[in-house]
């Protein structure tokens, strides 16, 4: 199940992480609530500097995993260690990149990148210098004074990546960051990301539902299965990426198929089990991760 | 986009202006082709960035400055643009004013009850030179400004509390609903009974009328902040106070400003009514006083001043709003 690297201590360690949400029970009257397991006994070590991709169908707990890593929610049981310290809340040792960019529309690209630095308490001058440096890193040197609405989707995501890198986090967490982009932009950003990863040596946890993306980017691919969200297996990607069109090599195709089979085999088995559990009425509407975050926000407001 | 309607309007206004000569005459010469051209140009000047970022979206131009080659209108062209736009926006007003002048003169209306515009303007001149007008405008503006300022400084913080904290909302919502649906003017007698006939009751009424638009839009603004922005800011470990200052407030500001503008209009509206009931100065007082004394042209002058004051206030608030939300329409 886990592929531990024994000698250096892991950057990130998931220890039997379990997360349950209380959701409305369908068809059992108002106010009836039932526990929904979003993530079940997730155990995994991520060594420093690794590019780990997490792939799985929707509802498999990927986003919950990311919220837990980001410290936005706490596990029901188990814990996540970053450099041996348990994660108890949000912090600048982790940078999160969201699918929908989450840029502040009233700030220019530079000011958006400075946002995290401001939170860190970096001085004004240094802030501007760091922002420009990171905008250059993501290839947006000339766009510092543009507002988000003046940038394309791909450029916005570059700004978001620059923002998350600028405050120098230990780990970069990416939640399907390229899912909203067109195929060509996505491919070029994938290459950019690999370049940035090599240049910065950051540990990256990259969540995706695209098998191709997972294989292309990851040193290892963690395959997750839904209901409940579980880590099925971790596949090491031994792919020679030096070639020109890596995606069309036979090796890439084989790896892709292996992961597809693993996901598919599981999908059919869960479909079967879902059918049986539907008969016992608890399948209901699982309202998975996507629905969870807003509720968590509400809770924090109240 | 109402491209063709504007085009039509453009044409008509150009024809209307033709006799005035100068730029108008040249405009009418080029009129047949002008309309579409004009709309094109305004589009480019308002958003050159948006246009070329689409073209230079991604990889091919990585890190390169995009070639900003938005077609620039020549100076003469721009003056012409401006002139046509001014003509287009003022033609309806000019028509109304002309009608006002002509209708009483040709006997369409009774010149005693609706004197022609020129008579009203003379009365306006008298009011202005005698200093009477300044006194009334100052009295009204002073009250409106005081009430408006109090309302905004109370309603925005209160709205933020209600919008952000559920328990506060649950506690205050019923009362707010009740008061919101009670017309401000219905409470005027109550205000006068409780606060007397002096300044306090009038300012209080303005505060009351201004508070609700600001309060409601602030609540909406705070509630509808993109949850992803909040989540992203929280993931940076921002403290609640900074989250508020740097994310929630700026995000809610455009919505809040809509309420502030509505409050600006409301302040004048209720104040005039209040001044009509009991006051010794102010534009509302001027109107009722002149009506009772049958100084009809003066009354109309007062009404015109109120309209102008309203338009000016709205214009000022709009400018302020644009300053605060420049990022939404800003070009490089």
From TrEMBL, chain A:
Residue ranges of the region described as Disordered: 271-302
Record keywords: ATP-binding, Nucleotide-binding, Transport
All copies of domain ABC transporter, residue ranges: 12-251
The keyword Transport belongs to this UniProt entry's keyword annotation: yes
Bias type Low complexity, positions: 271-283
A GO term, aspect molecular function: ATP hydrolysis activity
Listed Basic and acidic residues bias regions: 293-302
SMART domains: AAA
Classification via Pfam families: ABC_tran (PF00005)
Protein known as: ABC transporter ATP-binding protein
Organism the protein comes from: Cellulomonas biazotea
UniProtKB/TrEMBL annotation, chain B:
InterPro entries, per the entry: MetI-like (IPR000515), MetI-like_sf (IPR035906)
All residue ranges annotated as the ABC transmembrane type-1 domain in the record: 137-317
Record's keyword terms, sorted: Cell membrane, Membrane, Transmembrane, Transmembrane helix, Transport
GO biological-process terms attached to the record: alkanesulfonate transmembrane transport
GO cellular component, one term: plasma membrane
Residue stretches spanning the membrane: 112-129, 141-166, 178-198, 205-223, 243-260, 267-287, 299-320
Annotated stretches, region: Disordered: 1-48
Family indicated by similarity: Belongs to the binding-protein-dependent transport system permease family.
Protein's name in the database: ABC transporter permease
Source lineage: Bacteria, Bacillati, Actinomycetota, Actinomycetes, Micrococcales
